Q: What sequence folds into this?
C-alpha cells in the first residue's frame, strides 16, 4: 500500500516543529532537569500565582498523572510545596527557595532564549508569525478527524 503524498509545506512544517521540540528536549537535558519538570518550572515563572495543579495541567496540556508524577518528584527534592486550595481537591503549587533557584538556573534561561529569538525579529514579523501560527492551529483543530467507528 502506497503512502499518501505529503504536501511539501507540511513536510517543512513538521521538520521545523521537530527542531523546536528538539531545542526544548536538548535544553532540559543540558540544564539537568526532566522535560516535564522544566515545563512546570517555566509555567510557575510565567503565570500569575496562585497556580493550582488543575490549572497547570490545562496550561501544559498534559495528562494529570504526568504532571502529578513530576510535581511529586519536585516536592520530594524540596523544590516546591503542594498545599490545600479553596477546597480539599484543589492543590496550590508554590516554589520553595530551592525551587526558585532551580527555576532561575533552568526555566528563566529558556525564557531568556525565547525572548531573544523574538527580539531578533522585527515586531511586524513576530506579530505575523504568532497570528499565522494561531490561524494554522485553529484550522488544524477544525479539521480534527473523527474517531473511526467499527473496525
A:
Amino acid at each position: 500500500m502506497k503512502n499518501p503524498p505529503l504536501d511539501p509545506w507540511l513536510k517543512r512544517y513538521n521538520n521545523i516543529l521537530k527542531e523546536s521540540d528538539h531545542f526544548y528536549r536538548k535544553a532540559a537535558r543540558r540544564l539537568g532537569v526532566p522535560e516535564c519538570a522544566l515545563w512546570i518550572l517555566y509555567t510557575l515563572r510565567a503565570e500569575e500565582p496562585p497556580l493550582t495543579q488543575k490549572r497547570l495541567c490545562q496550561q501544559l496540556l498534559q495528562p494529570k498523572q504526568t504532571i502529578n508524577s513530576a510535581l511529586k518528584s519536585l516536592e520530594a527534592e524540596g523544590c516546591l510545596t503542594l498545599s490545600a486550595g479553596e477546597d480539599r481537591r484543589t492543590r496550590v503549587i508554590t516554589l520553595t527557595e530551592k525551587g526558585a533557584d532551580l527555576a532561575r538556573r533552568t526555566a528563566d534561561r529558556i525564557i531568556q532564549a525565547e525572548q531573544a529569538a523574538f527580539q531578533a525579529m522585527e515586531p511586524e514579523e513576530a506579530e505575523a508569525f504568532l497570528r499565522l501560527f494561531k490561524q494554522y492551529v485553529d484550522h488544524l483543530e477544525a479539521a480534527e478527524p473523527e474517531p473511526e467507528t467499527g473496525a
